[in-house]
Amino acid sequence: MNDTAVSPSRSKTLDILSSSPVSGTHAALGDEVTVHLHSQGIPLFVMPVSKRLKSNFEAFHMWLIDHEEAIEKLLLEFGAVRFRGFPVNGSEQFRDLMSHYPAAAMGYKGGGGPRAAVSGRVMEATRTDKDRYIQLHHEMCYQRQWPLKLAFYSNVVPSDGGGATTIADIRRYEAKIPQRILDEVRKRGVLYSRNFRDGREPTEGWTSQFLNMHRPWQEAFFTEDKAEVEAACEAGGLEWHWLDDGSLQTEARNSGFVTHPVLGTRHWFNQISNQTALPQGDRLWHNTLTAEDLRQGKRYPNEPHFGDGGKIPAEDVELLRKLEDEVLVDEPYVPGEIMMLDNVLCVHGRTPYKGQRDTLIQLLGTGTSE
User: Fold this and answer.
1) pLDDT digits (tens, 9 = 90+) for 149-160
2) What is the C-alpha separation between 245 and 297, in angstroms, rounded?
3) Cα–Cα dist 7/172, whole Å
4) Where are the beta strands (DSSP E) in 62-170?
5) Domains within the chain, CATH numbers bracketed
6) What angle do CA 235, 236, 240 make, to 5 degrees?
7) What integer best gives the mean pLDDT of the chain?
8) Global confidence as pTM
């Protein structure tokens, strides 16, 4: 089986009933919605045309349940589906809307990004500083278990049009990665070394973004009990030990690739680009090390290496980020919009913004790495 898969022919699998190849109706979704394909190939937009789906949340909820199989097929083809113009208002409705999907078994225990619970399994998408970019990545692929799907909800949209959840089709991205990088990762795998600080220790003088990145273990594992943390590490396939400063050090190895649980195709599946910290350049990434961070010499929270412990060349990380720019889709949210992603087929990130942003997320289903 090839490590890089080619997306299926959309003309065969997407039955859009329209003179346009990118918009119209879809037979499996019925005549109460219309669909439109983004000019860059993803996402597929689904929009209501009937009065009840435009105005009645319960009607939309039942419609979503009734068309779960059709939506699943669209996710397998496109990787990303956005529901725009439906009546979803607030975190509780977002929670209820996705209640027919199973939650990710591991939740967000040991998750790397700064976020907090909002309502049930609904969480903040991120608390990363608003002036930072987040690189494209697969959610939680650094652990043994990870969510099969993601659901985003745009509750408040920034006034400047920024803050989009950027996305890309992994099949387009991995087709651009040089064969030597694919072969090296395939041969050596990936090692994730991570440090979670003790939230009781002083952090005077730390930059706000470094505080965001370097999560306390109490926050990352949702407990003050070290025994519960250790059990979560074991369940997540993490090697762990406690350091003298009270912080938690973990390590996890995986292949850097994964087999899609439904399609059987093999894909690039790692956070080399997202977790590797590089000195500040022309763009502020979520993990850009500022001069102040470097001077203070603090432990760094995330350090990916090759699986044998070898250093991943900085120029290769920079190339991976450059390739992301060539394939990412930066489509601003509209208020109330829902976006569902297949976590293997579609990577996601975030653009900077000004003003207020409230984007929420749910982790759905459970995948397991080999």
Assistant:
1) 999 999 999 999
2) 14
3) 8
4) 80-83, 117-119, 122-124, 134-137, 145-146, 149-156, 167-169
5) 1-370 (3.60.130.10)
6) 95
7) 89
8) 0.91
